[in-house]
Amino acid sequence: MRSPGRGPRRRASFSRPRRSxxxxxxxRTCLHTASCLLKEAPRRLKxxxxxxxxxLVRQLxxxxxxxxxxxxxxxxxxxxxxxxxxxxxxxxxxxxxLDCGAAPGAWxxxxxxxxNSAGTNPELPRGTVVGVDLLNVAPLDGAHFLCCxxxxxxxxxxxxxxxxxxxxxxxxxxxxxxxASGFKExxxxxxxxxxxxxxxxxxxxLLPGGSLLCKYWDxxxxxxxxxxxxxxxxxxxxxxxxASRKESAELYFLxxxxxxxxx
Length: 263
Hints:
By secondary structure, the protein is of the alpha/beta class. It has one domain: 3-Layer(aba) Sandwich (Rossmann fold), CATH 3.40.50.150. The protein has nine helices and seven strands, in the order αααααβαββαβαβαββ. Strands 3-2-1-4-5-7-6 form a seven-stranded mixed sheet, with helices on both faces. Helix 8 links the parallel strand 4 (169-174) and strand 5 (206-217).
């Protein structure tokens, strides 16, 4: 859905990520993985509901799902962040990153690699990755997770500030979403409200000049979120990474150059 009275929104597009999606080694690995999965497909389809069968077939045919298995990412959403970062260089060695809605941890995996929070390269500055989610997240070298924590809770904010060096972050990432109710407008409104909470939280933790990348579902309140972001960030872009399925209403706002002074 589009907001009434508003013209068509321009969306940034991407080419396939060079480092992650191309190269002979990647192709051989993915082809082998895909071949094995396709051979197993008839057995794995047995006993599934029609919707479950459709989901499995889609996963088997999805190049990003295959790539996530080949590269040991926890889920295909890692490639959404990889695409964004390959183009806009949001994540750099030494930066402090707060990953909201971190489960199952794929975005944190990318962040750990890009900011060098595991100290893999001793010649580069070592960053920090802190994730938070209502769900449990399996441990990850280079990241600290606050599991079973609500990002809207003031106690959670205090704990996050204790974990972040100087209680500040350079980048806030959010791929979080509410549990689907089946009512698109209601789910859209809930997700927009969650994103607005991140803007309020930015006043407490985000450094001036910092960045915020957040997922939202397109709908009647998208313009409200964009206006709030534009009020405190110097640049706001709407993105639709290729790893985000075309039929999905999922979009991302990349807001950069945070300019509101921290209290």
